[in-house]
Amino acid sequence: MIKVDKVSFGYTKDKIIFNDLTTTFKTNKITGLIGRNGSGKTTLISLINTLLVTNSGIITFDDSLIFENEKVLDEIATVRSVYPILYGNKVKKGLKIFKKNNSRFDIEKAINLLNIFNLDPNKKMNKLSRGEASIFYAIVGLSISTRVIIFDEVELGMDDEKKNIFYEQILLDQQENPKTIIISTNVFSNTKEIFDEVKLIHKNEIILDDSYQTILNDYIVYTYKDKSEIYNFDYRIIEKTNTYIKVLLKSEDAIKVSEGLKDKPSLELLFEILTRNEVR
């Protein structure tokens, strides 16, 4: 388990990002770290892998401090879709470079994944499209046998077919070799059900932090012709017309209102509504 305990961090005194942030990433679970650009996702990841250093608080992995702990850091791999040193090389050569620098990298598995994703091994890295580059780094992450793997927005540019393959491969790996997986993203598709846990980060705060199903069960989409009944509750407007209003309510409040249509929200809808400026 990775535990972030009362962590504060700022790039300067005037630019504070986190203030007493506490959360955990559960062992052998797939966690979605979801937020808009600039919400704090990459900063949190950089604190976990010690590219950045906390101002206060601690981050531990199985109760051992991560900072300056080579043994622990060897078990945490982070994949981002930008490694300039590879740009002049062919895809297959890029995989060999990763193998040379990481003993936990399974190049045979990576080459097999090239076939599964239909990525040309002889294409130069600087000739890859945005989606193809994302596929390359997804393959890198899928081929590393650390106990923790963090994918930092590696889906960017992938089409739905390739995203589906990516998630299918993650699930296959989890069945054979369970590990702690963190997927940082602001992109949605119908495969987000692979998440065991979800952390919704907004303006440098984690505003939702629970299991995928619990989060969805905590909210109701409520459609009603007269909004007078919901005045006493906290709600967020989804849609408003001359004849009806559709709002997001906490489930505990939704049971107190009478007539109306009640539906379960999607994770995508929760993300959209909870991270926008609210106007009632």
From TrEMBL:
Q: Which GO molecular function annotations are given, in alphabetical order?
A: ATP binding; ATP hydrolysis activity
> Taking every annotated instance into account, which residue ranges of this chain make up the domain ABC transporter?
2-228
InterPro entries in the record: AAA+_ATPase, ABC_transporter-like_ATP-bd, P-loop_NTPase
Keywords from UniProt, A to Z, are: ATP-binding, Nucleotide-binding
Query: Which protein is depicted?
Result: ABC transporter ATP-binding protein
State whether keyword Repeat applies. Answer: no
Cited PROSITE patterns: ABC_TRANSPORTER_2
Annotated source species: Haploplasma axanthum (Acholeplasma axanthum)
Query: Does the record bear Thylakoid in its keywords?
Result: no
Source taxonomy: Bacteria, Bacillati, Mycoplasmatota, Mollicutes, Acholeplasmatales
